[in-house]
Every structure is written in structure tokens, then in C-alpha cells.
């Protein structure tokens, strides 16, 4: 608002100045014309030192080549950026329009229709206003989406476009009007539209400042705001001072001033907007400015100081999401006297626990197919940067293609932002690499068995459906509460040892006690693999699951998506790999100790050994951290009339049982073959 009021005051003061004749202007600025003004023939100009204080003297239209060189250099930079990382269409479009404007101005600036010669004697640079109409709306589109994360445009974008077009239309009309009250009226109409544009732009900058990650990104937004308001507010002032207004400066002085503003308001601003979206190293900017600053004016030295603060590698919007995920925190700010709620991109590891209720994980489902994210992800992976595995399309598609298709949802991998060597990831065993690198560690699944530890019966059917969607048949044995789970595990150990059951899938309700006396600790002491679900990228559930010392964990299920099938397949595969490793550790066990039972007999014994008395009040309550002292109760998931547990895979072939009747030599050969196969998989 202060800028707008100052602009209005300067404009009113300018209107009171007397308009000097053309010859006086020529002698003052030392501009020499070969022909009288108003005529079209060739014109030769040599610039004086007073107008170009701090600049090297240029001849004829040589100043246009500076703008031409900046446009060509920017286009080359954008091309390299598009190949290496990403580049928005807005900055490229504006640069192309600016380059076309320069080329036409160099050869045909004073020719019609680039310059309109009206019957009133006015000369209107239509080429300039046409370039504004083509480039300024795109700049405002870029402004309304500084982060590059929005796929659509809001009502504010439409307001920016309408007000900007109104400014240009009324400004052009004022330039064509004779120097009387009509020119003043149209100028003030355009100014009112311009004030509206500035007001909406200020709201965008304030909101963007609180949206982008803290640090260098906010400095970039602040620099872009100063560049935008500082350069755009000069255009109406030059209009009043130039030949379009009241002729206080010559046409050539106006052209040169507009060239400087075009570089700052378009090229530099677009480059800063590109910096905000893409990770770049801008040391070369610093060196270039330091080299050339000796002969440059003071404002360029100030700009060099601004760039000095940007001389570092920084984490921008796209890279922030690739590394930390699409996690935002709601923040309330006051915008134009009204409370506004904005979403700031944050790292879940740095969020205050008291603000966890304001953190939201939007997921990367809508971003995983953006080419810019995929290119940047590949580049970062080549440099050894650990990225968000949920954005790894190739790995996820490869895992899904081996599952027979079907509906697939997207989510995050279990490790979240933790690195393999991060202390926060300790206790997860070798499942760390399996969760973060599914493409390298996911293989064909084998038929198996799993025990579910649920707080109630609500999720049993859901998990039965998930296991039935796997490419290999699985027998699912549900249990309600920790005591029932321990009972089933003991029976499975009696039937076939630790290799009889693949793993136990535990609900997060039973992870509150990470000590050896807790459910997870007791299961691992019995030699059983333990996996958990319910992990979240932000919030208390993340710390709860990661500190529970389970062998693997899974995000979700979340409504309405459920769980990521590729994550689920990778987790089951890892559990089977851990089971094989446990079998290798027991190579010294005599074969006679392996039970020579068939799969059908083992399944029947495991099911029939569970009490079948059904009590309506015998289901344990579903509450976090249920102790292990709950009295043993009947499993309400088994029918009273049927002693065998229901299986969603009854139509599939049964799981082959261990061949305990084979000789010791044959068994050793099989175990050695499995060892060699496992070693080959781990070395890949």
C-alpha cells in the first residue's frame, strides 16, 4: 500500500511539471537525431554520459544486444535445467516472448506496426504493449504458483490476470490519447487496475513466504517480492515521464529505461522463480557479478550482495518433497487484516510434538507420475542422495507387475525418512534395506502361514483379503489379543518349529511395551518373526512403530486406499527371507527333530488345539498396550461348529509340508542350495 501511495504521489507531482520542447530535451540528454521527430526515416543516436551514468557508452541500438544476450543465455540455461532436473513452462515462455520482442525491436522498432504514428502526432510503441500483453499474464500465472505444486489455478489467479490486462489496456489507451484530460483519466483507470494487481500479488507473496520451507527458500521469495514491486512500479512512472505521457524524457531515454526494467522484471525474476523450484548451484552467478561489478552502477552492487546470500546449495520445493515427502503443517497468518490458514512444507522429524495435530501427509500419489519429479529423483539417486521411495515408479511398477495386476494404492515405505545408518532406524534388523529398496530385495513369494494379532475382529476380513491377493497361497490364523497370539505361536512351534509359520502381523495397539516382557519381545524370544502395521510418516504412530523392535513394518491401512500392495509384498518376502536365515542357523539340528507331518495334518492340529468355546464377553477390549496377563480366552474368530480356521485360499493348493522323511544327505543338499540362492540374492 505504501508503494502504491508513493507511486500516486510521484505521478501527481509529475503532472505539475512543465513539458519541455523536443529540442530542449535533445540538448539536455545530448541525443542527436538525423531527422526531425515524427518522421520514419533512419535515425542515428549516440548516448550521452548523463543518461547512462555508470554504464559504458553504447552506440545506436547496441543496448538491445545486452537484452538479446541475456535472453539467449537464459534460454540455454533453461534448456540445460530441463535436461538435468526440471524447468517450468512459464519462465521459458516469457524468455521466448522477450527474445522475439528484442529481435523485432533491433530491426523494425520504428517501423509500422511496431510503432504506431497517429494523426494526432502521437507515437505509440505498440510492440512494447503487445509484449506486455503476451508476457505479463504468464508472469502472474507463475506468481500464483510459485511452488510449482498446484495443478489448477485459483480465483486469485483470475483476479491477477484480469487486473493486469485492464492495466495494459487502459495504459495503451492513455498513450494513444491527446495530452489532455482524457490521457489523465485513462492513466488513472489503468493505475487503479495496477493497484489491484499489486494488492493481489502482495497476498500471494505473503502466503508463499509462509508456505515454502524455512531458510533459503524464504529468502528467494523475499528477493522476488522486492524485484517484482521495485520494477513494476517504475512502469507507470516512466509512462508519465516519457513521450507516451507528458514528454519529460525523450523516446530513446524511455526505451533504455524500459530495457533495464525488462531485464529485472522478467529475466531476473523468472530466473529466481526457477531457482525456487529447482536445486542449482549459483556460485557462477556470484563470480560473474563480482567480475563485472567494477563498472556497474550501485544498484547492481546491491544485487550482487543479494546473490551473495544465495551462494550455497539449497533444498527447494521439488527436492524437499522427494526427500522428506509431501508433508505440510497448517499455519495461521494475518493477511490484509483477515486470518488466513496456509500450509507450510515441513520435515516430519523437525515438527514440534505439540503441533502434530496440524501436520498432514498429502502423499505423493499425484506427484509420482510427474516427469520433473522422476528426472530429479533419478539425478539425486545417481549422486547417492536417499529419496522418497514412494516416488520410485519403476520399482513399484516392477513389483506390481509380478502380482497379477489389480487395484493398487500408493503410500510411503516403512522407513520413511530414516537412513540405513540412522540411530532412529536401529532395531529394525535387515528389514531396513528390504523396505527402502523393494526392487532389489523383492522376489517370488512362497506359500506360507501367518498369524494375525488383532485387537478385535474388525480388521480380520481385511487382512484375509490382502493375503489372498498375494501371488502365493497363505493360510491366515487370526488371534484376538496377545495371550491368544502367544498360544497360537507356541502351537506352531510344537508342530514345525520356527519355520512352520512365516511371521506374526501385530496391530499397533500391542506395541506400547518395547521391553522384553512385551508382546514383541516375547515373540522374538520364541524365535518368531514379527511385523507390524500402522506406521505413519508423521505423528506419534511413527515413533511407536519404529521403536517397537519389530522386524518390519507397513504403512496403513488408511481410508480409502488401504495398503500399498508392493509394500505389502516386499514385507512378506522379507519375512520369508528371515525365516530361511533362521533355518540356516539351525543346520546342526538332526533331521529327526523335524516333524514328519503333512500340511493338512499340521493345519488341523493347529486349528483344533484352539479352544472353541465362544463367549460373547470373552473378546479382549481393543486398547493400546494391553498387558500380557489377560486370561486365556477362546478365539471368537473360529466357528463353534467348525474346529478349523476359515481360509480364504481353500480353493488353492495346500502348502507343502517339510519333507522330514528324506535322508540327511538330501536335506543338507536342499539347505545348501537355499544358502547359495540366498547368498546370490544378497550380493545383487
Automatic annotation (TrEMBL):
UniProt-recorded Gene Ontology molecular function terms: photoreceptor activity
Signal peptide as annotated in the record: 1-24
Biological-process GO terms, alphabetical: phototransduction
SMART domains: Bac_rhodopsin
Pfam families: Bac_rhodopsin
Localization: Membrane
GO-annotated cellular components: plasma membrane
Major location (coarse): membrane
Transmembrane segments: 64-83, 92-110, 130-148, 160-178, 184-202, 223-242
Membrane topology: Multi-pass membrane protein
Domain of life from the UniProt record: Eukaryota
SUPFAM superfamilies: Family A G protein-coupled receptor-like
Entry keywords, A to Z: Chromophore, Membrane, Photoreceptor protein, Receptor, Retinal protein, Sensory transduction, Signal, Transmembrane, Transmembrane helix
UniProt-listed InterPro entries: Arc/bac/fun_rhodopsins (IPR001425)
Family matches, as CDD domains: 7tm_ChRs
Protein name: Channelopsin 1
Species of the source: Haematococcus lacustris (Green alga)
Amino acid at each position: 500500500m505504501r508503494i502504491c501511495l508513493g507511486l500516486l504521489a510521484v505521478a501527481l507531482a509529475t503532472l505539475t511539471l512543465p513539458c519541455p520542447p523536443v529540442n530542449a530535451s535533445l540538448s539536455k540528454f545530448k541525443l542527436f537525431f538525423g531527422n526531425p521527430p515524427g518522421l520514419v526515416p533512419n535515425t542515428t543516436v549516440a548516448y550521452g554520459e548523463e543518461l547512462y551514468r555508470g554504464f559504458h557508452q553504447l552506440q545506436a541500438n547496441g543496448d538491445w544486444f545486452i537484452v538479446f544476450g541475456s535472453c539467449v543465455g537464459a534460454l540455454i540455461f533453461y534448456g540445460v535445467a530441463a535436461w538435468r532436473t526440471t524447468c517450468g513452462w512459464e519462465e521459458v515462455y516469457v524468455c521466448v516472448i522477450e527474445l522475439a520482442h528484442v529481435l523485432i525491436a533491433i530491426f523494425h522498432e520504428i517501423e509500422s506496426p511496431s510503432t504506431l504514428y497517429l494523426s494526432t502526432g502521437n507515437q505509440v510503441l505498440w510492440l512494447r504493449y503487445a509484449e506486455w500483453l503476451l508476457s505479463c499474464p504468464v508472469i502472474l500465472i507463475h506468481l500464483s504458483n510459485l511452488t510449482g505444486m498446484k495443478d489448477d489455478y485459483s480465483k486469485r489467479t483470475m483476479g491477477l490476470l484480469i487486473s493486469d490486462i485492464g492495466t495494459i489496456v487502459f495504459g495503451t489507451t492513455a498513450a494513444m490519447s491527446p495530452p489532455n484530460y482524457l490521457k489523465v483519466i485513462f492513466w488513472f483507470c489503468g493505475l487503479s487496475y495496477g493497484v489491484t494487481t499489486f494488492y493481489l500479488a502482495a497476498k500471494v507473496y505473503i502466503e508463499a513466504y509462509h508456505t515454502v520451507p524455512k531458510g533459503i527458500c524464504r529468502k528467494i521469495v523475499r528477493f522476488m517480492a522486492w524485484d517484482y514491486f521495485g520494477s513494476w512500479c517504475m512502469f507507470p512512472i516512466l509512462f508519465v515521464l516519457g513521450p507516451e505521457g507528458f514528454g519529460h524524457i525523450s523516446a530513446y531515454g524511455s526505451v533504455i529505461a524500459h530495457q533495464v526494467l525488462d531485464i529485472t522484471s522478467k529475466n531476473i525474476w523468472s530466473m529466481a522463480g526457477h531457482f525456487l523450484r529447482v536445486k542449482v548451484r549459483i556460485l557462477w552467478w556470484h563470480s560473474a557479478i563480482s567480475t563485472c561489478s567494477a563498472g556497474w552502477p550501485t544498484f547492481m552492487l546491491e544485487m550482487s550482495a543479494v546473490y551473495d546470500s544465495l551462494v550455497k546449495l539449497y533444498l527447494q520445493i521439488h527436492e524437499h518433497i522427494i526427500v522428506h515427502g509431501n508433508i505440510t503443517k497448517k499455519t495461521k497468518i494475518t493477511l490484509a487484516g483477515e486470518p488466513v490458514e496456509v500450509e507450510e512444507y515441513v520435515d516430519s522429524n523437525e515438527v514440534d510434538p505439540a503441533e502434530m495435530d496440524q501436520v498432514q501427509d498429502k502423499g505423493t500419489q499425484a506427484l509420482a507420475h510427474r516427469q520433473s519429479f522422476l528426472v530429479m529423483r533419478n539425478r539425486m539417486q545417481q549422486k547417492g542422495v536417499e529419496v522418497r521411495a514412494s516416488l520410485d515408479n519403476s520399482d513399484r511398477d516392477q513389483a506390481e507387475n509380478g502380482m497379477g495386476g489389480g487395484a493398487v494404492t500408493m503410500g510411503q515405505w516403512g522407513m520413511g525418512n530414516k537412513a540405513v545408518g540412522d540411530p532412529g532406524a536401529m532395531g529394525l534388523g535387515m528389514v531396513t534395506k528390504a523396505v527402502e529398496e523393494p526392487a532389489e530385495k523383492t522376489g517370488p513369494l512362497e506359500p506360507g502361514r501367518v498369524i494375525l494379532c488383532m485387537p478385535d475382529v474388525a480388521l480380520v476380513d481385511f487382512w484375509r483379503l490382502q493375503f489372498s491377493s498375494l501371488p502365493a497361497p497363505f493360510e491366515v490364523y487370526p488371534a484376538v489379543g496377545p495371550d491368544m497370539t502367544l498360544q497360537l505361536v507356541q502351537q506352531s512351534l510344537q508342530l514345525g518349529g520356527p519355520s512352520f509359520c512365516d511371521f506374526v502381523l501385530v496391530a499397533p495397539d500391542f506395541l506400547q511395551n518395547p521391553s522384553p516382557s512385551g508382546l514383541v519381545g516375547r515373540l522374538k524370544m520364541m524365535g518368531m518373526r514379527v511385523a507390524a502395521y500402522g506406521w505413519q510418516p508423521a505423528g506419534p504412530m511413527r515413533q511407536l512403530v519404529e521403536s517397537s523392535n519389530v522386524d518390519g513394518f507397513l504403512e496403513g491401512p488408511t481410508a480409502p486406499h488401504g495398503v500399498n500392495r508392493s509394500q505389502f509384498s516386499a514385507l512378506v518376502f522379507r519375512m520369508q527371507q528371515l525365516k530361511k536365515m533362521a533355518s540356516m542357523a539351525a543346520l546342526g539340528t538332526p533331521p529327526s527333530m523335524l516333524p514328519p507331518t503333512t500340511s493338512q495334518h499340521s493345519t488341523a492340529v493347529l486349528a483344533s488345539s484352539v479352544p472353541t468355546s465362544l463367549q460373547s464377553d470373552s473378546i479382549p477390549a481393543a486398547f493400546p498396550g494391553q498387558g500380557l496377563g489377560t486370561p486365556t480366552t477362546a478365539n471368537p474368530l473360529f466357528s463353534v461348529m467348525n474346529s478349523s480356521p476359515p481360509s480364504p485360499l481353500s480353493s488353492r493348493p495346500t502348502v507343502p509340508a517339510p519333507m522330514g522323511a528324506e535322508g540327511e544327505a538330501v536335506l543338507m543338499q536342499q539347505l545348501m542350495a537355499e544358502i547359495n540362492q540366498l547368498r546370490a540374492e544378497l550380493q545383487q
